[in-house]
Amino acid sequence: MTYSEKIKASKEIYNALEGLNNEERLKVTYGIGFKGKKNKYEIKCWVDKRGKRSYSIWSHFSGMNVDTLSKTTMKCYTYDMMSQRTNYSFQLYSMELDKDIQEEVLDNPFI
Question: What does the domain layout of the chain look like in residue ranges?
Fold first, then answer.
């Protein structure tokens, strides 16, 4: 996959993330879990007084802070109890918007 193809494939997720306002959430799926089902994540957005966005990504009870968001990747980090940093890069072109959420948005007459 070329870089321009990756940007095109990531565009939907990237635009959805950039369109989030303060304390809004976006549900996505990424990768396959142990039981063969897609892993579900929730991305949360916070906007400070200057308008700068901060994101975090959560799966059940564990989460990571987003360090950088580019057009194709979302680089995340977390610290454990021993102050050990763990990094992970999510490929935006491998993420999908959660279909349950899309249907809720399409069916909602107030949006």
Answer: 3-100
